[in-house]
Amino acid sequence: MAPCAALERCWAGAMDGARQCLALCFGGGGHGDEQGALLGQDGKLGKYGEAQGAKPSGAEAGAADEERDKVVKAFVIAHHDTLGYLVLKAFKNRKGIHGQLPGGNLDFDDASPAFGAAREVFEETGIDLRANLARLRLAVFPDGTTQLKGRQFFRLTLTDADAVGDRAPDSGEDFRLNLSDEHVGFVFEKDAENLALMIDQHSGGKCSRAVRALECV
């Protein structure tokens, strides 16, 4: 069975046995970030970072690492107390159908990473947090840092009032969103480790690493 078909079966079953299915689809090999740690999908740069060339060696490595850690992307770990974690579904030719967190590249005119995260959430789901950024809580990693390779993560507690659209989740819950054209569906997943597996191909695997560090404790 082709990986894409196997993964479709996984989504259709509301992610029952997500570990086994995703191991079948994605087993072996790592997932590189297609555009690099600092470049967006369109190859443009945000005001929070600069493009990097090949990683320098020796004395220049520390300065390059610091530059590369500037925030250029923001993602949201959205969780509903009853339904679980929100997982967006996207399709790309090289990846097939895969899970994503809401979020993405910061724009030049984003006032802050939190505002950029809110803008992305609105564009991708219809949930509007732009006038209520306090709902987005900056995630702090166990080592005290607040970013991972140029990415910041925010926690959002979803409520029933956030169900603002006409698209129902593929997992069957009564919670509707207005999905962007770049997404083909969404599901809710209650287990954080399964969430990490589902988004393993998103943003070069960095979102999966963040979920494991922040939620799987």
Automatic annotation (TrEMBL):
SUPFAM superfamilies: Nudix (SSF55811). InterPro entries: NUDIX_hydrolase-like_dom_sf, NUDIX_hydrolase_dom. Pfam families: NUDIX (PF00293). Residues 85-173 form the Nudix hydrolase domain. This is Nudix hydrolase domain-containing protein.
